[in-house]
Amino acid sequence: VIFINKIDQAGVDLQSVVQSVRDKLSADIIIKQTVSLSPEIVLEENTDIEAWDAVIENNDELLEKYIAGEPISREKLVREEQRRVQDASLFPVYYGSAKKGLGIQPLMDAVTGLFQPIGEQGSAALCGSVFKVEYTDCGQRRVYLRLYSGTLRLRDTVALAGREKLKITEMRIPSKGEIVRTDT
C-alpha cells in the first residue's frame, strides 16, 4: 500500500508524484481516491472503471468480461485486488495529509481489509500466533495474538501449542484507535 502524504502542501503536483511512483517503484498501481485540491482538499473513493484496469488486465476471466462489455461485480474486482496486493503484484495508492488527519481512515480501512485472508475466514480451522503474554495485577494471563483463520468466541476453550487448554474469559480488539471488548 502506497500513501502519498502532504497533499496539503502548496504547489503539490499529484500527477508528477504518481508518475514518479510508476517509474521508480512499480507501474502496477491502482489509484484508490480522487482528489480535489481547491478550494479545500476533498478525497473521494475512485469509482471510475478505468481505475480498475490494473486489476482487470492480469485476470483472464475479468478481462474477457470487460472486453465483451459484460458487467463485472465489485465483489470480484475487490477479491482480485486483494489477491494481487497480497501477492505484491499490485499496489493501491492512497492520498492524504497525516498531519491534518486527511485520508488516514481510508488508508487504515485498506490495510485491514486488503490483508485479511481471502475467502471465508470464519469457516477455516482456528490458526493464530501468540506474540505477547502478560499478567494482570490479579494474576490473570492476558494473551495477545494474531488470528489468521477461524473464529474465537467468549467462553471457547482452545489448545495452545497443541497441549495447554485455555478458556477465553474476555476478548478485546482494536477498533477506531481504541481497544474495545467483543464477544467474537
UniProtKB/TrEMBL annotation:
Q: Which GO terms describe its biological process?
A: ribosome disassembly
Q: Where is the Tr-type G domain?
A: 1-116
Signal peptide positions are none
Task: Indicate whether GTP-binding appears among the record's keywords.
Answer: yes
Gene3D superfamilies in the record, alphabetically? P-loop containing nucleotide triphosphate hydrolases (3.40.50.300), Translation factors (2.40.30.10)
Which PANTHER family does this UniProt record tie to the protein?
Answer: ELONGATION FACTOR G-LIKE PROTEIN, TRANSLATION ELONGATION FACTOR G-RELATED
Q: What is this protein called?
A: TetW
Q: Say which species the protein is native to.
A: Bifidobacterium thermophilum
